[in-house]
Amino acid sequence: MDKKATWDRFYTENSKKGKFRNFEWFFGFDSVKHYILPILQATNTNSPLHVLDIGCGTSAFGSCIYTHLPCAVNVTCADISPVAVQLMQEHAESTPVQPCNPASTLVFREMDCTELQRHYEPRSLDLILDKGTTDALLRSTEGREKAGQVVRQCLTVLKPSGYLLQFSDEDPDARLLWLEKESQGSQVAANIAVQEVGKLRGVTYFCYQFTFHIGH
Ligand SMILES: C[S@@+](CC[C@H](N)C(=O)[O-])C[C@H]1O[C@@H](n2cnc3c(N)ncnc32)[C@H](O)[C@@H]1O
Questions:
Q1: Cα of 212 to ligand 1 centre, how many Å?
Q2: Sequential pLDDT tens for the chain (216 residues)
Q3: Ligand 1 centre from 216 Cα, in Å?
Q4: How far is CA 199 from CA 27, 70, 88, 147, 173, in A?
Q5: Distance 1 CA to ligand 1 centre (A)
């Protein structure tokens, strides 16, 4: 599940099923908004916040933040699949939603999230969301390397006050070790906390939350 062509096929097949509907891996925004909105509301800045949803697919997470957050926010929904990005773009144009704050923006971009530094300055983002994207990459040997790259790139482009939230079904015993290993050697040292989100169809989901210290 680390191949662009696989995802292009998936979203092309989905788009043939009729009228566009957001497809959510695991769960929708309402189940986890209490992890996301307080972080953004507590962030102290005079300029708009910048939120990036990596591997957004056709999830409504980005547009929900855009419509729910009272302060100004620039939301970017990014995916490696141009099919997913086009579906999201067309949906946003045909069914526009109103931002909670008139200064907020919402954009959809084709992007390989193993190369975030090609698109963003170091220490420029306030929040990165990853729902199921790292999980998908971790399912293959080749993808594991890419998943590590994604984590390291996130650590580089997040502000020191920023957060990375990963929503995942991977057990903390395995995930925490892996995350600690992958984040070692980056310029920032990450604190990683985990909370149980809950059970869905017998599977337990977790929220892994990174915050940062500037390293030496
Ligand atoms: C399991 S889906 C999750 C989609 C969405 N986040 C959700 O929760 O519904 C994984 C997504 O990651 C995207 N993806 C895979 N590799 C990627 C990469 N290197 N850069 C950006 N997106 C990627 C896929 O196209 C797919 O949309």
A1: 24
A2: 888 999 999 999 999 988 899 999 999 999 999 999 999 999 888 899 999 999 999 999 999 999 999 999 999 999 999 999 999 999 999 999 999 999 999 999 999 999 999 999 999 999 999 999 999 999 999 899 999 999 999 999 999 999 999 999 999 999 999 999 998 877 677 799 999 999 999 999 999 999 986 543
A3: 33
A4: 10, 30, 28, 24, 17
A5: 9
3-class DSSP state of 76 = strand
What CATH number has the domain bearing residue 85? 3.40.50.150
Task: List phi, psi (to 5°) of 178.
Answer: -65, -45
Contact between 183 and 192 under an 8 Å Cβ cutoff? The reply is yes
The total number of structural domains that make up the chain:
1
148 Cβ below 6 A of ligand 1: no
132 lines ligand 1 (CB under 6 A): yes
Instruction: Look up the domain containing 39 and give its range.
Output: 4-214
